[in-house]
Amino acid sequence: MSLIKLYDTTLRDGTQAEDIALLVEDKIRIARKLDEMGIHYIEGGWPGSNPKDVAFFRDIKREKLGQARIAAFGSTRRAKTTPDKDQNIRTLIQAEPDVVTIFGKTWDFQVREALRISLQENLDLIHDSLAYLKGHVDEVFYDAEHFFDGFKANPEYAIKTLVAAQDAKADCIVLCDTNGGTMPFEVAAIVEAVRRKITTPLGIHTHNDSECAVANTLSAVQSGVVHVQGTINGFGERCGNANLCSIIPALKLKMGRDCVSDEQLRKLSELSRFVYELANLTPDKHKPYVGKSAFAHKGGVHVSAIQRHPETYEHIRPELVGNTTRVLVSDLSGRSNILAKAQEFDINLDSKDPVTMEILDNIKDLENRGYQFEGAEASFELLMKRALGTHRKFFTVLGFRVIDEKRQEDQKPVTEATIMVKVGGKIEHTAAEGNGPVNALDNALRKALEKFYPRLREVKLHDYKVRVLPAGQGTASVTRVLIESGDRENRWGTVGVSDNIIDASYQALIDSIEYKLDKGEEAEPGKK
């Protein structure tokens, strides 16, 4: 069986979902994770449609991805314009992606009502655009928009649009269920009909408006499709896109189709939570395969059975997708996760070591208070090292004060932070201004510590996210702060939780600095 190529459109289609907005840096971080996951194609956006996507295609060139190819998305040329003069086509080429994906109309109803051109003119748009792009880009894909609706309305014309793409030498023709209303049995029959007419490799792109996006995708693969499009966690417009977090394990574990390695598959749950965190959304614990509750057991009969034979109530071993069996209200919950993370950080832990249970109890307590360590692995590593007694305390904060003052109604507030730290036997008392309380506190901390630890000058604060946790009391709610920091070589995330946003930010800042100092100590010869 041929390799199934995975095409992720989280950074484009996924961001069209309500409540989702990603910064350029968020998109870059997600692209790195998708590459590690083994995704073959990453659609970065529509260059020219907004400054954010232009910046993404500029910045992603600096990244050294392992295997993923970056795709730019756009449309066919406009009517009455040649491809070389069409601004959309020119912008796609200027972005210098590895791949260009363009969409065109398949449904005769859309051609007449949306484009208001003749059916033949639409065929010319498709052919001319793809043929021109093939002369400038190594790999070109064609998304046949509304294909299934178009085929059901006018199968002869729908096939003609695909033939136009095939004659233009498109590398893959992607059949799109744009409105998300097609059923799995329809997908199977239509894909098989298309394969009798089209020899170009076929892809599938489905939406979830009928709760069939994943089923439709798998049905298409069973019928001969070799290219699968979707998003992480099913993010997307309206009811979302096909969820790659369900599709990937189904392809590999249920259908025996090669798409990612076993090692990459084990990163799936982590990737799901990472994308939720950067999208600033609470992870859906009930998501298949990757959700926190996907392998959680509470009923007495179930718990008794899975302790003897997990397959009695689990359709796969959760470890295959990086998840874990959870026995609710039990000491057994989470131990394997901690051991796996310890191994990842080269920390020696044994399942019978009392420290393991101490860490587990600590994590349970922290998670109950609102902490979450996806996207904050630096804080998690420090937590383990503190429990083991292997983390050196580089400094002590004796106290701090943050003043936020608005002097005139039409002026921005002025923020100043004052901090007192102790390093060894020396006390440093300093102040700094910032463009907000967190920035001012960060500046004051750095100012106090850099004279003792000059390597802190390398650290930059790249991202700062705040989430108000559920079940709070309005402005008195508990908040979780996630900070991403980095130096010239690495980036790391830290977390803080408090009903005071400054305190939560302070916790995350302290962890960020301590993590940098801890890593610097490891790198210095002769240090233990």
How does this model look, in words?
With 528 residues, the protein is an alpha/beta fold. The chain folds into two domains: 5-278, TIM Barrel (Alpha-Beta Barrel); 396-523, Double Stranded RNA Binding Domain, CATH 3.30.160.270. The protein is built from 18 helices and 16 strands. An eight-stranded parallel barrel has the order 1-2-3-4-5-6-7-8, surrounded by nine helices. It has a three-stranded antiparallel β-sheet with strand order 11-12-13, with helices on one face. Helix 1 packs across helix 2 (51-59).
Chain-wise SSE layout:
Elements: E1 5-8, H1 24-37, E2 41-45, H2 51-59, E3 69-75, H3 87-94, E4 99-105, H4 108-115, H5 119-134, E5 139-145, H6 147-153, H7 155-167, E6 172-177, H8 184-195, E7 202-206, H9 213-222, E8 227-230, H10 244-254, H11 262-265, H12 268-278, E9 296-297, H13 300-308, E10 326-327, H14 335-344, H15 354-368, H16 377-388, E11 396-405, E12 414-423, E13 426-434, H17 437-449, E14 460-468, E15 479-486, E16 491-498, H18 501-523
Parallel strand pairs: 1-2, 1-8, 2-3, 3-4, 4-5, 5-6, 6-7, 7-8, 9-10
Antiparallel strand pairs: 11-12, 12-13, 14-15, 15-16
Features:
528 residues; alpha/beta; Double Stranded RNA Binding Domain; 8-stranded parallel barrel; 3-stranded antiparallel sheet; 16 strands; 39% helix; 20% strand
